[in-house]
Amino acid sequence: MPIPGTPSRAELVEHLVATRIAGEVATPRENNLSHYRKLANGDRHYWLGLELGERWTDEQDVLAVMAERVGVNDDPEHRYGQDTIDPELTVDGLERMAGRLRKAAEGRQRVLLATGHPGGLLDVHRATAAALRAAGCDIVVIPDGLTTEEGYVMQFADVAVLEHGATLWHTHSGAPMKTILTALEREGRPLPDLVVADHGWAGAAGQYGVDSVGYADCNDPALFLAEAEGTVQVTVPLDDHVTSPRHYDPMTAYLLAEAGLS
Description:
Organism: Streptomyces tunisiensis
Structural class: alpha/beta
Helix content: 40-55%
Largest sheet: 5 strands, parallel
Number of strands: 11
Strand content: 15-25%
Protein name: Phosphatase
InterPro entries: Phosphatase_SCO2771 (IPR031423)
CATH class: Alpha Beta
Radius of gyration: 17 Å
Number of helices: 9
Distance between the termini: 20 Å
Pfam families: Phosphatase
CATH topology: Rossmann fold
């Protein structure tokens, strides 16, 4: 480790399990179920910038979607201990995302990249931005001086992030993405053709009507519900903060190769 070059699908699946990006992940079952319940009870912190209305008020319906799209245990009586992400579903999601990235590259589209989980996924997005730029895409530069209640909305290595106290900030909020999109409109600039993100950054973009693809952990069900409803185009299931961000490198290499960007 890391896998040199671009892994085959089988090699990537093995790597995802070995690094616990998928397979038996670190997120415990009780945390997953707690988040599903809070989303169903209307806690907007878990809606990730989306407007779910009254459509997902039964936590068992949320669990069913997560079992189908992520590979968590579908038994509602399994309430404690280990839970899982199916690595095959992770790779399926990467391949769907690659298809949308290929379309962006072929059309030289405007793309905005953002992360609410910079400790894990910043370099995944940075590498994706670099590959899209090299293919002729316009990587959206966000307006200066943007803020939310949590901090400053800024761009680092072509990736929009939240900064607070001179630190890149972990956030589930959709407010930073909404702030960017409304600022672009206020300045008379076109919206992105595509947002590549995670957490509330991806959810808010999809809710705004922008094509959105992203990554989500097994305890963050909102983006998977949004994909099921068509608000978000692709959600890739993975553990979004494993022991080293370098563990994501083979996954990123596979994604870009599938998209024809490497």
